[in-house]
Amino acid sequence: KVILYRDIPAQERQRLDNQFDITFFNGINEENKDAFIAALADAEGLIGTSTNMSSELLSLAPKLKAASTISVGTDLYDLNYLTERSIPLMHTPGVLNETTADTLFTLIMCTARRAVELSTMVREGRWTSNVGEALYGTDVHGKTLGIIGMGRIGYAIAKRGHFGFDMKIQYSNRSRNLDAEKDLNATYIDIESLLKTSDFVCVMTPLTPQTERLIGAKEFAMMKESAIFINGSRGKVIDEAALVEALINGTIRAAGLDVFEVEPLPASSPLCKLDNAVLFPHIGSATTETRLKMVTCAVDNLINALNGDISQNCANKKQLNR
Ligand code: 8YV
């Protein structure tokens, strides 16, 4: 028995139906949570995303043998709890790198050139004269791009900056990324130096106990007043209230965000009132092509894991000693 808790394309749903006895939920909410909890009692597999799978919830699935998240991020699952129960968590690394990097570079361009603010001005009939200095954006080409988290997606973002925009790439990471240094002439520096010297600061780390609230008031204060901050990781990697203050007080120039502490971002958020904040609704990987690749990967992962093969795409393989 497998629970599918996110709607997926019919062709991939058929593949699951061919293999397993599927109980389907189109997202988990207050209306169906009791039914979901009841289904957990017999579930041997879980596949979906966008639902927080706490240890409390997972403990209600005594027969669980494998979980497959349709995402590269694994922070919605209590990975330590799954590992304690020797349950593999499968995820979808690799297939979304280029699309997510496209999204982050879209954020860089939109934020630097004030594209959303100025497009709104046109739509609202406020374009009454040539755009003057008060509405100028800032150049991207030739600037310094600092990437915090030079993993596969960080590398793809740096690739766009290096080859597409002649940007100087510097990065801070848990370990050296020699490919980025060789291919993109990237420089490995400490995070404080990166914050102080980058024109664009782009965060692409996973959300872990070490990265939670990594960027707060102190870090924003280290950045150039002309700096543009980009977050494509997880909302909780930054102190969102501190970012709002930094944007209002001119500590930094602007921010482009694809992720937020609370998602969906409430319209009451002060971020929604700031022209120097470009806000995307967590669309990093949200293209037809890439989401199909992610679902296909996640379905393959679950089938393999329930057949005992966790050789590919297992987030806790090392911890499971398999
Ligand atoms: C997911 C993401 O699509 O992969 C991730 O970790 O954040 C996005 O690509 C999103 O979580 C919804 O599935």
From TrEMBL:
Name of a matching Pfam family: 2-Hacid_dh
Highest taxon listed in the record's lineage: Bacteria
Key words, A-Z: NAD, Oxidoreductase
A molecular function (GO) term: oxidoreductase activity
PROSITE patterns in UniProt: D_2_HYDROXYACID_DH_3
Enzyme Commission number(s): 1.1.1.-
Gene3D superfamilies noted in UniProt: NAD(P)-binding Rossmann-like Domain
InterPro entries: D-isomer_2-hydroxyacid_DH (IPR050223), D-isomer_2_OHA_DH_cat_dom (IPR006139), D-isomer_DH_CS (IPR029753), D-isomer_DH_NAD-bd (IPR006140), NAD(P)-bd_dom_sf (IPR036291)
Domain D-isomer specific 2-hydroxyacid dehydrogenase catalytic span(s) in chain numbering: 2-316
UniProt domain D-isomer specific 2-hydroxyacid dehydrogenase NAD-binding: residue ranges: 106-284
Family: Belongs to the D-isomer specific 2-hydroxyacid dehydrogenase family.
Name this protein carries in UniProt: D-glycerate dehydrogenase
